[in-house]
Amino acid sequence: MKCEHCTRKECIKKTKTDDQENVSEEAPSPIPEDRETGEFHKLADAKIFLSDCLACDSCITAEEGVQLSQQNAKDFFHVLNLNKKCDTSKHKVLVVSVCPQSLPYFAAKFNLSVTDASRRLCGFLKSLGVHYVFDTTIAADFSILESQKEFVRRYHQHSEKERVLPMLTSACPGWVRYAERVLGRPVTPHLCTAKSPQQVMGSLVKDYFARQQSLSPEKIFHVIVAPCYDRKLEALREGFSSTSRSSLGADCVLTSGEIAQIMAQSDLSVQDATVDTLFGDSKEEMVMRHDGASSDGHLVHVFRYAAKELFNEDVEEVTYRALRNKDFQEVTLEKDGEVLLRFAAAYGFRNIQNMILKLKKGTFPYHFVEVLACPGGCLNGRGQAETQDGHVDKALLRQMEGIYSDIPVRPPETSANVQELYQQWLDGVDSPKAQETLHTTFQSPEHCAHSLDIRW
């Protein structure tokens, strides 16, 4: 039977009932049970399964399977235990970066405000032995700002001979993996080259922060807390473009649900703590987000920027109009009866598949599409919005959506810290270093599965 997320005509995805113990058939545990007897061993029993991932397991190579098996709590606790031993040469600075879409989950779980939930989470992580806890909003600032400039550049370049539109967002790893491994050309040239917030955060921690602390990147163990299992695959993506594991921007990704499980099993005494920043001793006193219903808000911010840059139109309120369903919506800029910009949000693989079919036929009318693999967006990531029997927890999701919508919005252009980083870290806004650090390339296999013909 083909599951709703499968990208193959014949699904070979394992389920939890089919294989309760294996993440991948060829993926041995990186830390044998008899070696890990430290203080945290009893907490390190959270497992991940390829069935939790939105990508089909047939696109996981054996090498990736081994690496994927390290994306769990056991690897995290292994580092915590090493840090408590006398051999300081093996000690690492533990950094945890938390995605803003994970915080509503903890707020709902603890019945706290999102700021208080952030402080509770930070306090717990530091009680474990984590040295720094960051918020990834600043990384999303960079991703959005670079996406804005790229869209305007593509708009000017677009022609019948050079069709660089629509621009498709690339912040969702489930969607990107599907595009790279299954669709290939002609889809991958439409992917925005701006790195995702997770990838930018990896560079901030392993490059900028490491320099500020006079540390080599391999002395930092960087953990991402995210709502989605596909973020684990995204962490591997950068590593496979290099020969060294130390080049990974994120060494380990744990879902919100995995962290909640660790918290539930812990009897540590916890004091709330304020989230750190990348700038010395300053702290993040208040949780902020970008202007998106359940995501990092690429569509809204790119739309406003493009309207101003291309047509000198100031857009205050961005109005979504649902079309096929609530997960396919469009936003238009109109003047004197003419549509100047037509943007869309396509969430969930059914809507993505319809989008690809129309793109292939040349009947897709949009300039820009915010593409997310999860129906309902990032808040509905399968690492935090599922019941124990694997279904969407609709009541929890509605609660998280309400919590997320109440978080104050901060436009990325208003961040003085981002502008400072552009100058001090990247040698300027449009410098070669900024291009190299904040942008990526995509694989385009010549022979891909005939997925464009799959009916969902």
UniProtKB/TrEMBL annotation:
One of its GO terms (cellular component) is lamin filament. Keywords: Nucleus, Phosphoprotein. Its main location: nucleus. It is found in: Nucleus. The keyword Transmembrane helix does not apply. Residues 390-446 form the Iron hydrogenase small subunit domain. SUPFAM superfamilies: Fe-only hydrogenase (SSF53920). It comes from the Eukaryota. Residues 15-36 are annotated as: Disordered. Gene3D superfamilies: 3.40.50.1780, Fe-only Hydrogenase (Larger Subunit), Chain L, domain 3. GO terms for molecular function: lamin binding. Interacts with LMNA and binds to the farnesylated C-terminal domain. Belongs to the NARF family. This is Nuclear prelamin A recognition factor. It comes from Otolemur garnettii. The lineage of its organism: Eukaryota, Metazoa, Chordata, Craniata, Vertebrata.
